[in-house]
């Protein structure tokens, strides 16, 4: 499996809602912590600078009052891990200060007890420290302040910025708990939405396959409940309409068959053989057209689905057609279990075979098993169909043969019914011209289709 084929983003609404909510809580907690952390850091920096200035001034005032011989020892006693006080003798070293260092020196000058001390004041931000103090310099700058004590003596105060404290464990635990609680709450809300939506999707799929839709429970949030209620009302109305249509078609079919039968009987009294033959032929065409229209108008989905062996069904159909003289050849295939409406599948494949024989002299039928579909392929040796007409032939009453004769062009409803049956099972029908001549019709059915 390639990396590109791995789906990192979940496809279900519940999982997406949990992930998005958890990510939002995580980002918001991080943003708040960062905001307060930066604010606290600024306050801490300001407090540290004030403390450094105050400590440097206090140390200089104290050491200025101590005898010269004791100053070095006193400075050493005042030092610690982050504070170092050193006594230097000699002239004040010359040095230039940056704008930040000069601003800090200007804040320090008014704090000195003797104004003349400000003349030799020097403030530096050091980027490097002695090796023994390097660990104290990892997380901040080092401030070095040089203040003159007496003529020829200066006090150097070095402050090593302590590292910032780590995030408290309490904050991490609180953030983790907030994410978990929010994710659980999002999951509960998502389940209330997705559960009825999933049932609605299953019912809609059943209707799309031509089956009878189960009633969807009207539960969940108001929007979802209203959608389920509207779907139930729609399916009830469609079911009533389809039932009325079926009853009407049955009545029309009965009413049409009666006069056709009477007309067929009356033709027996016609004495002229040619006239009688033409009348019988016209009545037969009318009978075939009536049956085809009724079959197509009834649509698909009235039959209950059941588990069958598709290969055995096709083999039986081809055997029956071959016995009555239809030139059809079947390539044996292993068992192909499928949940479907078998009479509809048999009717669709029969139509494809009859089309192949009518236009291509013979029909070669074989079954191909793909990963998730079965493909029934019917090939002929006819002239094929132009690319522009390969979709048009599925429209009702479309016949590429222009004579309008039922013997050569049929009723124009066979492929329309094949397409309706394929789509009613969640499948497809497609046509293609073979390179060696003739047409190949591929009737695709999903292998995993559950019974509607």
**Tally of contiguous helical segments:** 10
Count of individual beta strands = 11
Strand content: 15-25%
Mean of pLDDT: 77
Our measurement of the CA-to-CA distance between the termini, rounded to an integer number of angstroms, reads 33 Å
| Series of H and E elements | HHEHEEEHHHEHEEHEEHHEE
Strand order of the largest sheet: 6-8-9-11-10
- How much helical structure, as a percent, in the residues? 40-55%
Which descriptors would you attach to this protein?
11 strands; 10 helices; rod-shaped; 452 residues; four-stranded antiparallel sheet; Heat Shock Protein 90; alpha+beta
Task: Compose a concise summary of this entry.
The protein is an alpha+beta fold and 452 residues long. It has helices spanning 13-64, 68-78, 99-108, 169-208, 222-267, 273-298, 310-323, 342-360, 406-409, 414-424, and strands at 83-89, 122-126, 142-150, 153-160, 306-309, 328-330, 337-340, 363-369, 373-379, 428-433, 439-446. The strands form three sheets. The protein has a five-stranded mixed sheet with strand order 6-8-9-11-10. A four-stranded antiparallel sheet has the order 1-4-3-2. A two-stranded antiparallel sheet has the order 5-7.
């Amino acid at each position: 499996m390639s990396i590109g084929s791995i789906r990192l983003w979940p496809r279900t609404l519940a999982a997406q809602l949990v992930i998005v909510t958890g990510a939002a809580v995580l980002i918001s907690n991080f943003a708040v912590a960062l905001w307060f952390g930066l604010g606290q850091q600024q306050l801490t920096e300001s407090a540290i600078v004030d403390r450094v200035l105050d400590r440097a001034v206090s140390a200089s005032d104290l050491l200025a009052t101590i005898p010269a011989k004791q100053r070095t020892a006193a400075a050493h006693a005042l030092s610690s891990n982050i504070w170092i006080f050193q006594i230097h003798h000699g002239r004040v070293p010359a040095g230039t200060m940056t704008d930040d260092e000069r601003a800090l020196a200007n804040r320090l000058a008014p704090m000195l007890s003797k104004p003349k001390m400000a003349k030799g004041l020097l403030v530096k931000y050091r980027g490097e420290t002695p090796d023994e103090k390097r660990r104290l310099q990892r997380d901040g700058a080092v401030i070095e302040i040089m203040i003159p004590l007496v003529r020829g003596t200066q006090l150097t105060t070095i402050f090593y910025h302590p590292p910032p404290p780590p995030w408290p464990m309490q904050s991490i635990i609180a953030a983790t708990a907030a994410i978990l609680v929010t994710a659980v709450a999002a999951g509960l809300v998502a389940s209330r939405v997705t559960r009825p939506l999933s049932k609605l999707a299953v019912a809609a799929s059943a209707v799309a396959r031509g089956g009878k839709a189960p009633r969807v429970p009207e539960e969940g949030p108001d929007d979802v409940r209203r959608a389920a209620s509207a779907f139930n009302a729609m399916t009830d109305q469609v079911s009533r309409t389809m039932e009325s249509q079926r009853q009407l078609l049955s009545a029309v079919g009965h009413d049409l068959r009666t006069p056709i039968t009477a007309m067929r009987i009356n033709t027996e009294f016609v004495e002229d053989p040619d006239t009688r033959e033409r009348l019988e032929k016209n009545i037969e065409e009318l009978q075939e057209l009536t049956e085809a229209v009724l079959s197509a108008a009834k649509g698909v989905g009235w039959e209950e689905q059941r588990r069958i062996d598709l290969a055995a069904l096709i083999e039986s159909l081809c055997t029956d057609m071959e016995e009555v003289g239809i030139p059809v050849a079947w390539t044996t295939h292993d068992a192909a279990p499928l949940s479907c409406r078998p009479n509809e599948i048999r009717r669709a494949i029969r139509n494809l075979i009859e089309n192949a024989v009518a236009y291509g002299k013979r029909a070669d039928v074989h079954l191909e098993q793909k990963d998730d579909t079965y493909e029934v392929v019917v090939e002929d040796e006819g002239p094929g169909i132009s690319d522009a007409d390969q979709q048009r032939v599925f429209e009702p009453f479309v016949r590429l043969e222009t004579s309008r004769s039922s013997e050569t062009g049929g009723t124009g409803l066979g492929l329309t019914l094949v397409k309706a049956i394929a789509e009613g099972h969640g499948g497809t029908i497609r046509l293609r011209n073979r390179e060696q001549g003739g047409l190949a019709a591929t009737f695709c059915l999903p292998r995993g289709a559950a019974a509607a």
